[in-house]
């Protein structure tokens, strides 16, 4: 029977694998959607040029003045193509950042520039960003592949938020492979038949060391003895090489000067 820590480790890493899969699906779907939108914009520009050069019917005019470019997610407005492309590029950039955060590399970069995605925070911020990305994609008309990938990422984000509320900031340390290896190097068992015996195992070395240590060590209060400013202090300073000079006798400035008497 595995200890409870093993089930937590397996569950959190399984959630990490699903999160990576969802991010990869969203990454690929956004690239496909971006390429499809650019092709639709190219066709729209060609059709617009043909419609202006020749007499067109009402259907063509409705298509040219529609809210969105036909067969795309690009709004038919000034600079609509630019903002649609920027939106897709930002989503791809955020997905790449989340992927690196899931792999934990480079950890120093995240701890300094993106602390909420670093090792000191749990899975809650990661889940919130995933939900935001999924909602941003689902709020637009997209292909079935993009909708499925975004809905899957949104679901994984909700689970990450729940895991962050349960495990808090220790979630990433519990799923870390390096921490599992360090814990496995321990010579003493920590669980027997599913029972945690770590307090018992850790108490034995301290008891043994206290028995064999004896009273050889002196208290720190006795080691630090003050000699004061008297004769004992002067002798101790002389033994250490410090010399105390006696000040020269002098009168204060306001004292009257002694006049020599003439006999």
UniProtKB/TrEMBL annotation:
Keywords: Membrane, Transmembrane, Transmembrane helix. The keyword DNA damage does not apply. Residues 81-142 form the DUF7598 domain. The keyword Thylakoid does not apply. The chain crosses the membrane at residues 7-27, 81-100, 121-139, 145-167. Coiled coil: none annotated. This is DUF7598 domain-containing protein.
